[in-house]
Amino acid sequence: MPLLDALLTGITLGGMYALVALGLNLQYGVARIMNLSYGEVVIAAAIVAYVLFGRQALSPLLTMVLLVPLSVLLGWAVYRFALAPLVRRAGSSREALEVDSLLGTFGLLFVVQGIMLVTMGGSYLSYSYLSVPVHLLGTTVAANRLLALALAVIIGVAIWLLLTRTRIGTAIRALSVDPMAAQLVAIPVQRLALAAFALGTALAATAGVLISMFLTFSATMGVIFTMKALIVVIMGGIGNMAGAVVAALLLGLVEAVVGTLIDPALTLAANYALFLAVLLFKPAGLFGRAAR
Known about the structure:
- The chain is an all-alpha fold.
- It has helices spanning 2-30, 38-56, 60-90, 94-120, 143-165, 167-177, 179-184, 189-212, 222-236, 241-261, 267-281; strands spanning 133-136, 139-142.
- α1 (2-30) packs parallel to α5, α3 (60-90) packs antiparallel against α8 (189-212) and α5 crosses α6 (167-177).
């Protein structure tokens, strides 16, 4: 059943895009950092999983657990030493911070990508992990895709609970809405921005490991995940986590249905057509509010 295959593939892709976009939403929507090197973290984590599985036979699930604290530390260091000076220089100007962070992370993109190209080359990489068929709803799907989707859902629910059921989550959401008002009610803006950036980095690394289990990737593919994450964030409404999830699922479903039932060469065009339609009819995003 081609349609059912496309739907299952689309939901899996949408789950991965949602996980990737949630991290960028934290960095851009909360920390106000336009991180163009975000996708490089996704690919770097995928490469680490590939290397450890191939050389040490280490399960990517264990690699994911090991990478979470390391990626949090990496995100903290990047923000503390590379981005915090830009934040201080921009002051209260969000526009200035977006431009400065865009230029700074654009350079970081090439640094990270260059290191990956030197160490791994530009060839496509993949490995076989739980590539066994599972019969589901009258069709067949690989077990690694189902596992990746299940873990993405669990992680997404955990992030939602963190943001909606804890005091720190409430403070983060307040910061994403209005940083100046958040300061007035004694919310530690800079510390929360740093925490949001570090958590976003951890989500990128987690998504990279999960994606590596069932997709082929290369050292130069980071920009693809950055662009798709940006599309999802803007479509869903900047800072809106529920909107990002819905937008990611729409993007994955459109990509899978077009690629399966029409022509794989048209998937990119379909993605941008969907993006353009949302911008035309919902400029603030699916769940965003128009500025007054």
